Amino acid sequence: MKANDGIKPAEFRGAGALQRRVRRVARPVMKSLWRFDLEGFDRLPTTGPAILCPNHVSFLDSAFLMMAVPREISFVGKAEYMDSWKTRTFFPAMGMIPIDRAGGDKSAAALDAAEVVLRRGELFGIFPEGTRSRDGMLYKGRTGAARLALKVGCPIFPVGIVGTREIQPPDAVVPKVNFPRFNMRCSIRIGEPIDVARYADRDADHMVLREITDELMFEIRELTGQQYRNTYATKGGNVVSGQVENGESPVAVSP
Questions:
Q1: Model-level pTM?
Q2: Of 211, 215, 232, 237, most Cβ neighbours within 10 A?
Q3: How many C-beta atoms surround the C-beta of residue 231 within 10 A?
Q4: Other CB atoms closer than 10 Å to residue 220's CB: what's the count?
């Protein structure tokens, strides 16, 4: 039996004291290894819940965003991380909420845990594409962030991350760092918040969820300049037809 069998996401509380301590130590180290261009962080609320939705092109995306935001932030991450002794304790302590990628109720349970985080007035990060883009393009978003925002009544912030793919490409074991022949730079831009209040009385309408999500992906594309594909990305780099709507998994998962 694998370690992730029987995982209950509600048992994971999200970011806490360890993330605060690691951020204090890791931030100066990261700034010495890579160059960061940060924009729009003043748009984030100083208190209260908010959902941050970045594009996803590298393993480093969540780590860099976690270190850049001024507040603690929790993320969903694949339950397979619970199979390894190297990540089983550390990742949840850093704010990861594990998600079972089998779909259905098992995946939706991670959103329930995220709702608890948001109702505590904290930040939550979720990758709307559902997995890393293997080719660097931006793929169709899944509706988990929209569902959460409508349920909790909080804003969604589109986030554009550029440069992490060059620092650590797909399947690369270690990232490149700044040496004389490298100029490793990462740009993280936070866009204007998407206010879902105008849809508050239509939170069960799938067309509303799709409209919010499509608006989100448009704003992310504006921030990154990526080419957009109106299809769902999958772990192996294949795509799923964008015509599938009602049967989609609403939860975004980082592999």
A1: 0.88
A2: 232
A3: 16
A4: 25
Q: How many CA atoms lie within 13 A of 136 on its CB side?
A: 11
Kindly state whether residue 10 falls inside one of the protein's structural domains. Answer: no
pLDDT tens, residue by residue, 158-172 = 999 999 999 999 889
User: Is residue 14, in this structure, part of any structural domain at all?
Assistant: no
CATH of the domain at 206: 3.40.1130.10
Distance of alpha carbon 143 from its chain centroid, rounded? 13
* Residue 101 is assigned to a structural domain of this protein: yes
Residue 185, judged by CB atoms within 10 A of its CB (0-12, 13-18, 19+), counts as middle
**In the beta sheet, which residues pair with residue 51?**
124, 156
CA distance 115 to 127: 16
Q: Strand 123-125 and strand 73-78: pairing?
A: parallel
Domain around 47: 38-168+183-240
The total number of structural domains that make up the chain: 1
